[in-house]
Description:
The complex is a heterodimer.
Chain A: H1 2-6, H2 14-41, H3 54-77, H4 81-111, H5 120-151, H6 161-186
Chain B: H1 2-19, H2 21-24, H3 31-36, H4 41-71, H5 78-84, H6 95-131, H7 139-159, H8 189-218, H9 231-262, E1 273-274, E2 277-278, H10 286-320, H11 327-341, H12 356-368, H13 370-384, H14 393-415, H15 418-424, H16 428-458, H17 464-490, H18 510-540, E3 582-584, E4 587-589
Antiparallel strand pairs in B: 1-2, 3-4
Amino acid sequence: xxxxxxxxxxxxxxxxxxxxxxxxSITMMFIGFTSAYVVKRSQANWLAFELPHIFxxxxxxxxxxxxxxxxxxxxxxxxNMQRYKQLITLTAILGVAFAACQxxxxxxxxxxxxxxxxxxxxxFIYVIVGVHMLHVLGGVVALLVMFGRAYRTRVRTYSAxxxxxxxxxxxxxxxxxxxxxxxxxxxx
Amino acid sequence: MSNEATLHxxxxxxxxxxxxxxxxxxxxxxFISKYVFSMDHKMIAKQxxxxxxxxxxxxxxxxxxxxxQLGFPDATFPxxxxxxxxxxxxxxxxxxxxxxxxxxxxxxxxxxxxxAGLSGTFSNLLIPxxxxxxxxxxxxxxxxxxxxxxxxxxxxxxxxxxxxxxxxGGWTMYPPLSALGDASIGSKIGVDLWLTSMALFxxxxxxxxxxxxSTLLNMRTKGMAxxxxxxxxxxxxxxxxxGVLSFPVLLSGFILLLMDxxxxxxxxxxxxxxxxxxxxxxxxSAILYQHLFWFLGHPEVYIIIxxxxxxxxxxxxxxxxxxIFGYLAMIGSLFAICILAFLVWAHHMFVTGxxxxxxxxxxxxxxxxxxxxxxxxxxxxxxxxxxxxxxTPASLFSIGFVSTFISxxxxxxxxxxxxIDIHLHDTMFVIAHFxxxxxxxxxFGMFAGIYHWFPKLYGRFMNQTIGFIHFWVTMIGAYLIFxxxxxxxxxxxxxxxxxxxxWSSFKQFGGLNEFISIVVILVFAVQLxxxxxxxxxxFKGRKMTTQNPWNATTLEWTTPIHAGHGNxxxxxxxxxxxxxxxxxxxxxxxxxxxxxxxxxxAH
Lengths: 188, 603
C-alpha cells in the first residue's frame, strides 16, 4: 500500500492530520467535563477545597517528560538510535511516574475526607484527573510500541512520522494537564 | 459524442490496467483479510451496510411490536408469548417490555442504523472513490472503526437477552431513572450494557470520523480542488466534523453516569427516595446530564440527515441531467447547519425549568436553521425543475426525501418555539415531527444511495420493479403513519405511554391508532421486500456491463466494475472540472476527468 499512497498529492502526513483532529476531539471531551464542572459549581452545596500538593510534583514530572520526548525526536532525526532508545524509555518511565503521582493524589484526597463518592466537587477531580491519566497511559503504550520497533533488527524504520505523532500527542496531554491544573485551581 | 468520451476513457483505463498489471495483484488476500478484517474501504462499507440492515430489521420489528400494543391495547396475540416469553404473558406485551422495545427502537435506529449504517457505509464507499484516493488515510483505523462498531453491536445485542431485559429508560437514558438500578427493572444490567455498547460506538465513530476528515482534506487527486468535490463529499465532511466534536461530550456524560451507577458519586443524583427510602446522594443535578446529552443529541440529528442530503443532491442532479442548482449555496448552507447544530441543544429542554430569557436565544437560533434548510429545499426543487428526469427508484426516493424533509421540517418551526413547545412537548406531535424529518427522510436518502450506488458495490443492479413498489408503499405509508400523529399530539396525547385507553379525551383516537398500526405492519413488510431485493440482487441481479450506468460525471464511475483494493488499476485520474457538468454545450454529461476544451468556459 505504501507505494500506492506515495504517489498521491498531500500536504501534511495524513496520520499527523488525524492526530490533530483526535486532539480536537479529546479537547471536546474535557470541555464537556469542565463545563459540567462550571455548571455544577454555580449551584448550591458546592464544597471548595485545596488540591493535593502532589499535583504540583506531577506537573514537574510531565513537563520534564515533554522535554525528554522532544530530545528523543531530535536524536531520532540525527539517527543516534542508542540515545533515542534511552530517551523514549525515560519518557515512558516519567509517564508512569506521572500516573503514580496522580494516584497518590487520589489517596491524599481520600485521607482528606474527600472520597470518590463524597462531595460532587471531589468526584469531579477523580473523574477529570482519572480520564486524563488514562490518556497519558495511552501515550505510554504508544511509546512501548515505538520502543519495540526500535529494537527490531529485521525491519528498520527511517520514517520520523510515528515518533513525531507520539511526541505531538505527548505535548498535547502535557498542555491538557496544565490547563486542567489551572482550571481546577482557579475554579474551586 | 458522450458515448465516444466514455469509450475513450474506458480505453485509457484498460490501457493503464495493462501497464500496471502487477499493481492490482499486489498482495494476495486470504478470506479473512478480504472479507473479515478487510482494510479495503469498499469492503468496510459493505460491512457497515449489512450490519446496519440487520439492525434496521430488528429495530423496525420492535416498532411493529409496540405499535401492536398501541393500536390494539385490549387484544391478545398468543404468538407474542412464544417469541417474547414472560415479557408478553398471555399474548399481551407487558409494560416493562413495552418500554424496553421503545428504548431499543430509538437507540438502534438513531445510532446503529442511521449513524453507523448510513454515514459509515457511504462515507467509506464514496470518499476515496469520489475524491480519487486509493483508500482512507489510515485503512487500519478504518478497519478498527468497523470492528468497534461490531463489538458495540454484540454488547447491545447481548443486552436484549439478559434476564432483566435491555435498558428501558428511553433512548436518551435520562437519570435518575437510568442511574439507579433499583428504580426499575430496565435500569439494571441493561443500562450498563447500553453504556458500554455506546462507549464502544463512540470510539468507532471517532476512528471513522478522523479518517474521513483527514482523507478528504489530504488525499484528493490532482486537480480536485475543494470546490470541485461532489456535494456528497461536502456533506460527509460536515457530518464527520459534527461527530468528532460532539461524540466526545456524550462520552463524558456517559462516564459521569457510569460513576453515579457504580462508584456512588452524585453527579446527577440528589434527594431521591426509592420505595420510601431516602438515598444518600446529594448535590447532583439530573439536568446536567440533559445538557451533556443534547450537546451531542442535537448535532446527532444532523449527523443523520446531512449524508442523506448530500446523496440526494447527487442523485437528483444525475437523474434530472442538470447541474445542481446553487452549488456554493449548498455548501454554505451545510456549513451554516453545522455551526447552528452546536448552538441549539437547549430547545430539547424548554420545559426543564430553563431560564426563559436563555430560552429566547435558543428559539432564535433554532428558527435560524430554517434558513439554510429552505435554501437547500429550494435548490433541490430548482435542480429538477424542467429537468429531463429519469424516474429510477433512486431518483424517486430522492424526490420523496425532499417531500418529507419539507413536511417534517415545517413542524420543527412549531416545536422550536418555546411557548408552543409547552403544549406540544412529549406528545405524539414530537414523534410525528422527528420521524418524518429525520427518520423517514434519512431512510429515503439512504435508500436513494443504496439503489444508486448498488452497481458500484456489487457490480449488479437491484430489481427496479420491486424498487418502485418499495418506494410507493413506503412513501404513502410513511405519511399515513405519521400524519395522523400530528392531530393526536395537538390533542395532547402523550408519547411513551403504554396504554392511553384510560383517558376519555383520547378515546376518539382508538380507531386511528389501529389504522396506524396496520399501516406500520404493511410498510414493515415492504421493507422486508427491499431486504430480499438487496440480497437477491447481490447474487442474481442484472449484471453491470458498462462502467458508468447512470452516465454520471464523478470519479467513482471511472473505476473498473469490480475494482480491486486501490480502486484504479493504473494512475489515479486527474480532475479538470466540477462534478456537475450535465447538459452542457449540447452534451449530456462531461466526466470530471475531461480537460476543459479551448472553446469552453469552466463552471
